[in-house]
Amino acid sequence: GWLMTVGYALAIVCSIVLIYCGYRFFNATTSEQLFWGVCFIISVQVQVTTKLWIYMQTNRIYLSKELRLLASQKQQ
């Protein structure tokens, strides 16, 4: 419920930060490129981790529904 909504909101925010850091990296001066490059790499890692968490939660919910369905069929 609400935790998945927070996860999706975090993924959207990470996408915006990722695009912003990528834009700033390619338009930065030579002295600023290192900073924006590191910010870009960190934002990629945060986004990948967030999406992986969302996929894991979705898989957990799906598996628990299937297990409940199998348990109810076995009892009948």
What does this structure look like?
The structure is a single chain. The protein is mostly helical and 76 residues long. It is 93% helix and 0% strand. It is built from two helices and no strands. It has helices at residues 2-26, 30-75. Helix 1 runs antiparallel to helix 2. The chain is rod-shaped and about 70 Å long. The mean pLDDT is 91.
Number of helix segments? 2
Give the number of DSSP strands: 0
Major sheet size, sense and barrel closure: none
Distance between the termini: 30 Å
> pLDDT average, as an integer?
91
How do the helices and strands line up, and which of them pair or pack?
Blueprint: H1 2-26, H2 30-75
In short:
This protein is mainly alpha-helical and 76 residues long.
Primary descriptors:
93% helix; 0% strand; mainly alpha; 76 residues
